[in-house]
Amino acid sequence: MLIYAGRLLMLFVWGFLLLNVVHPFPKPLTHFVNVALFFMVIMHGLQLVLMRATQPKGSAKLSGWMQVKIFFFGVFELLAWQKKHFPKQ
Questions:
Q1: Residue 74 Ramachandran class (φ > 0 left, ψ -120 to 50 alpha, else beta)
Q2: How many CB atoms sit inside 10 A of residue 50's CB?
Q3: Which of 23, 58, 64, 86 is 20 to 30 A from 33, alpha carbon to alpha carbon?
Q4: pLDDT digits over 17-27, tens only?
Q5: What single string gives the DSSP state of each residue in 11-67?
Q6: What are the residue boundaries of the structural domains of the chain, listed by start?
Q7: Of residues 46, 55, 53, the one with CA closest to residue 74
Q8: What is the pTM of this model?
Q9: pLDDT tens per residue across span 33-50
Q10: How far apart are CA 8 and CA 22, in angstroms?
């Protein structure tokens, strides 16, 4: 349940950051939002690269759709993936 709330929160954050690209905010805020967008793209890209690099050789590769979801939802999608593939015993 909280994973879905986290995904929804990430959609709002991405929407807010991308809104600045389409319709720039007033001067001091626009610089902060641009830096936040740059940081978000770098960090989520890094999460995706690390996830792909740590996959075992014999396991199935991540699908393109899963990679997109990891990029946009970040740690919330990684938690959902972990919960699906490694259930508690």
A1: left
A2: 10
A3: 64
A4: 999 999 999 99
A5: HHHHHHHHHHHHSPPPHHHHHHHHHHHHHHHHHHHHHHHHHHHTS-TTSPPPPHHHH
A6: 2-52+61-85
A7: 46
A8: 0.84
A9: 999 999 999 999 999 999
A10: 21
Distance CA 51, CA 43 (A): 12
Whole-angstrom distance, CA of residue 72 vs CA of residue 44: 7
pLDDT exceeds cutoff 80 at 60: no
Largest CA distance in the chain: 53
Residue with tokens 């967008």: 37
8 sits in which H/E element: helix 2-22
Residues 6+ apart with CB under 8 A from 11: 72
Nearest to 18, CA basis, from 88, 69, 72: 72
